[in-house]
Amino acid sequence: MVLELSESALGVALAVAGALAFAGQFLCVRLGVNDGDVTDAVLVVLLCNVVLVGLPMLVLYPPPYTGLYTPTSLASFAAAGLVGMFVARLLMFKSTDEIGASLTSPIVASNVLFATVFAVVLLEERLTLIHLLGIVLVVVGLAVVSWETAATTARERSFRETGITLLLPLGAAVCIGLEPIFVSVGLAEGTAILPGLVAMAGAATIGFVGYQLWTGSLRRIPIRERATFWYVGAGVSTTIAFVAYFAALEIAPVVVVMPLLQLTPLFVVVLSALFLPMRLEHVSWRVGVAAVIVVLGASFVSISG
């Protein structure tokens, strides 16, 4: 007997898979940067994204591939890649190295708050009561995470240093909040999701390599090191997450997909407690509560959006 899933059920499954894959990215990066370097992590993940979405595009679409884009869509997806895949990922991975995955992911999940602000300001969307409730919950969750971060790092860092550290995941959240603004412009031009992802990953990779050349930090990636293995795992996880996320949006309503995608912080907390050693990740009950609050707030914002 063959089980048939409805489109809504398949959309739910894809959204949950995307959330799990995004959580897997955090864990792989946390394990990798323990012995490796953050910049290596960003470059390996980006290269994995380019290869894993680029090869299917070459197979599924006939040349010339320039016909898949308009000048506006190419510029929009490139901007989304630079902001979301390059800058946000660099800040997010650095934060994961500094304060851990379970503290970083709830703060990064506040990207829906910033996305809402950008949509209201730039796209002239209306702010509803549910939006406001969700924003309040996200802010409360961030306050708990910030307090927990200060408490756990008080012996190692000053109050000022802790505040500066928290700017890393907040900066990543702002960048990820900007990303869908650019993506929506690219999709409105008629460019399909897969070519859009290729443009995003390609622009992010070129931008990051250019940044490394400019700063003189570009170096050979140690292929056989254990850290590189975890970075490849993170690259595979993020590619699966993006594909599952966009595929879910293709077949299921946004109000179903987006709240489920916000489960990432909860998955990170649970998986960190189960699989990461205590020396790498200390998951307290306050972090779990904060993750739940942020997930609820982000879900409210997503539903009302």
Automatic annotation (TrEMBL):
InterPro entries: AA-Vitamin_Transporters, EamA_dom, EmrE-like. One of its GO terms (cellular component) is membrane. Residues 10-146, 166-302 form the EamA domain. The keyword Membrane applies. Pfam families: EamA (PF00892). It is found in: Membrane. It comes from the Archaea. It is a multi-pass membrane protein. The chain crosses the membrane at residues 12-29, 41-61, 73-91, 103-123, 129-151, 163-187, 193-215, 227-248, 254-276, 283-303. Gene3D superfamilies: 1.10.3730.20. Keywords: Membrane, Transmembrane, Transmembrane helix. This is EamA domain-containing protein. It comes from Natrialba chahannaoensis JCM 10990. The lineage of its organism: Archaea, Methanobacteriati, Methanobacteriota, Stenosarchaea group, Halobacteria.
